[in-house]
Amino acid sequence: MKITTVLVTLLLSVAASALEVGDVAPCADLQHLNVVSAQTTYSACAADQGKEGQPVLIEFFQTTCHYCQLNLPVLKALADETANGLTVRQVGIDRNPELLVKYVADNAGQLPGSVAVDSLRVLTKLYKVTGTPEMYVIGKDNKIIYKHVGSLDQDAVLEIKKLVQPTR
Hints:
- By secondary structure, this protein is an alpha/beta fold.
- The chain has 6 helices and 7 strands, in the order αββαβαβαβαββα.
- The protein has helices at 2-17, 46-49, 66-81, 97-106, 122-127, 154-164, and strands at 29-33, 39-43, 56-61, 87-92, 114-117, 134-138, 144-149.
């Protein structure tokens, strides 16, 4: 009984500290991988990444995650459909960066945006990521406007589209 109480308390404290909608999005410098696997540093601060103030979707993923693989075509379609209203960034948290280099090469042309390597889990810790896939949409004020854990369903995609539609 005591062990169960301790585990429940621990899980609640972890969940309570997770980033939520309305929180300011953390920033960190990561290594960016492009399709040819050249590396350059870029800031994972959403305010630095969006095109002219666009919201940014950041997906934390692992190359071995089944649900992350299912999200790939959904994210690509979302990125294509909202190109004028949303910038998509993926953050790979595999401990072996070579897996991410292979992922980028294997999925050339299918990626929704740039892929960053966070094998030391710097940004992952700042975002308090609890599993993959986990994604955040960051508004132009650098605050989280949407959070989703798990594979993207039709309702999640519609919600994201609604949030990022440019005002006319």
